[in-house]
Amino acid sequence: MHINERVLNLSVSESSTPWWCLVGFLRGDDTVPATHLRYGIFPDVALVRNDVGRYQCRWVRVRSCCGSVWLKGIDEMYIPVAHGEGKFCAPDGVLDGLVEHGSVAMKYAKPSGEPADGQFPHNPNGSAYDIAALSGNGGRALLMMPHPERAVFFTQRYDWTDVKDASMRAGKPPHLCGWL
User: Are 178 and 160 contacting, i.e. CB atoms less than 8 angstroms apart?
Assistant: First the structure.
């Protein structure tokens, strides 16, 4: 049994408690129904090979579109993706249901903040409805394909020197330019 399955099985057994929360960053080598989505919130959703047919490792813009506790106060993020099998896929009826129930937590967006509309490179994998993350269990579970854990330091952004220079020109302290 994979360590992630052990954590999920433990979390699911405790899911009736009001404080229970779960966040999962999906790896390209995971089969979603068998591991991360095992607890039944999104049983018909799978990750499949990217439309571009190759591994993608770069930064994308995503917009929050639900009330998940994990995304409270976050409207938009610029975060890395790193996957070859990151396309959310499900039957049309299931996708429509996810949208209707507010389970689509984040969508890929263009630099302007407008929806990606399935266009590469803004939607890096061809996910239906530009889905980048799903939320369930009353907003307490968040499953996302982008990898915010790869963006721990401001200097990991490919454009960090440009952002730093612009921040300094605006009079922001150089050691805080990535945060203000």
Answer: yes
Upstream peptide bond of 148 is cis (omega within 30 degrees of 0)? no
Give the model confidence (pLDDT) of 17-66 as tens digits.
555 666 655 554 444 443 344 444 566 777 788 898 888 888 999 999 98
Q: Does the CA dihedral 48-51-53-55 come out positive or negative? A: negative
- Provide the sign of the torsion angle of the four alpha carbons 25, 21, 98, 44, taken in this order: positive
Annotation: CATH topology of 3-146: Rossmann fold (3.40.50)
Q: Assign 3-state DSSP to the chain and report helix, strand, coil percentages, each to 5.
A: 25, 25, 50
Model pTM greater than 0.85?
no
Q: How many residues does the chain have?
A: 180
What are the phi and psi torsion angles at 97 (to 5°)?
-65, -40
Domain ranges of the chain: 3-146
Q: What is the pLDDT of residues 105-117, one digit of tens each?
A: 999 999 999 999 9
Q: Please give the Cα distance from 111 to 1 (Å, whole number).
A: 40
For residues 106 and 116, what is the distance between their CA atoms, to the nearest angstrom?
Answer: 12
